[in-house]
Specification:
single chain, mainly beta, seven-stranded mixed β-sheet, three-stranded antiparallel β-sheet
């Protein structure tokens, strides 16, 4: 069984989500530790699309940094510990009709982009529900 990220939002209801990004680090003895990914200086792209295709335009797009607005976008709240927050505003909560959309989350570090919200048919879901 594969875990899948599903974010649900009720139409007309603003909502925020908090995330912690971790990574697996190999120790010298071959074992692994799970540690937070340092997000200092990075941008989190939070993109809602009809399908998880790179060239498909976003229906909602948020670019989250250490200085972006916590109120209407979201913010990297603790960069060293891999923590960020995304805010879906009331206006955004009614922008899309009820249904399921692809959620694409990418980490941008200068000219390097890492897609972290799934691969192929195992992509994250942004679900709009009736209130």
């Amino acid at each position: 069984m594969v875990d899948k990220l599903v974010l649900e939002i009720n139409q007309g209801c603003p909502r925020g989500y908090a995330f912690t990004i971790t990574q697996k680090v190999c120790n010298s003895d071959g074992s692994y530790n799970i540690v937070p990914l340092n997000l200092t200086g990075m941008t989190i792209e939070f993109l809602i699309k009809k399908a998880p295709y790179y060239k498909l335009p976003s229906l909602i797009a948020k670019y989250i940094t250490e200085s972006s607005s916590l109120v209407d976008t979201g913010q990297i709240t603790d960069a060293k510990n891999g923590q960020f927050f995304v805010q879906i505003t009331q206006e955004e909560s009614v922008k899309l009709p009820p249904g399921e959309y692809a959620l694409v989350i990418r980490i941008v570090d200068k000219d390097t982009v890492n897609h972290i919200s799934g691969d192929g048919n195992n992509y994250a879901i942004y679900r709009v529900c009736y209130q």
